[in-house]
Amino acid sequence: MRNCRHFTVVSPGPSGAVRAVSCLLLVALTLWLSGCQTRQARHSSHEALSAVLWAQTSAEYAASALQAYRLAAVNLDLALADPHWTAALEQRDAYTGLPPAVIIDLDQTVLDTSRYNARIILEFGGHSNRRFAEWCRDSTAPAIPGAKGFLDHAAEQGVTVIYISARAEASRDCTTRNLRALGLPLERQAHLLLNDGTPSTRKTLQRARVAAQYRVLLLVGDDLNDFVSGAKSDPDTRRALLKAHAGRWGREWVVLPNPMFGSWEASLYGFDHSLLRDERLHRVLPQLQR
Ligand SMILES: [Mg+2]
Known about the structure:
By secondary structure, this protein is an alpha/beta fold. The chain folds into 2 domains: 2-38; 61-287, HAD superfamily/HAD-like (Rossmann fold, 3-Layer(aba) Sandwich), CATH 3.40.50. It is built from 11 helices and 7 strands. The chain has helices spanning 14-45, 49-57, 59-81, 114-124, 129-138, 147-156, 172-181, 203-211, 235-244, 263-266, 277-284; strands spanning 2-3, 8-9, 100-104, 160-168, 192-195, 215-221, 253-255. The strands form 2 sheets. The chain has a 5-stranded parallel beta sheet with strand order 5-4-3-6-7, sandwiched between helices. It has a two-stranded antiparallel ribbon with strand order 1-2. α2 packs across α3, α2 (49-57) packs antiparallel against α4 (114-124) and α3 (59-81) runs parallel beside α6. The site of magnesium ion has 7 residues, from loops. Magnesium ion binds at residues 105, 107-109, 221-223.
């Protein structure tokens, strides 16, 4: 009996060998096709697909970023003219005579890292610090629309630009290279505050250190964590934080849209980064409101 379904070949001889080879080719083709289908299904169903495509292709995303940076430039000028203006909750007394600075985030605020998120969809399936470090080393992220114009305007006004990012210290060289390649202001390495994994590099503490030396005119970012402590909490608490500072948005605080990643997303699965993708989705889906 020769039976491709059960992958058994009983009869020997040339015709049996030909049939056996045919069966194996058929099996290989079937496996390859099923692999393609699985791959396509994985890509088309990845939870970040629409978010990444929106950020990379839509006129609406670019318009939102331009709008945010135009607002930031107008508010920068207002802040410079008002010596009592400060954006940092961490700013203490006697700041009016301090030199002016803006504090600004990097990823999806100044640097468009959506190509890394595209790679997650196409190759990785999920984020890891090691993968991001590799991507950073090999890539030059473009600037977010409007970012360079705003930062150049700030620098021309004598305002120090200080970047506070969750990027790891290990990515300092590639980050510096990226900023230099785009011609973005980076007066000295002390103005690029990254995360070395210690509590002292949490953004709130870094803002406090900056606020001790500068009058902070604006905070610009894409994550609640770029503005206020407490972002690492459940969605209701995060919304309460938003409301508690309602008067600051669009004034001292300018936020850019980022539907791809951020503490907003991690709050939906309790910041448990050990969860697998399916486990995260299992936690997230019941939170849809209808
Ligand atoms: Mg960011």
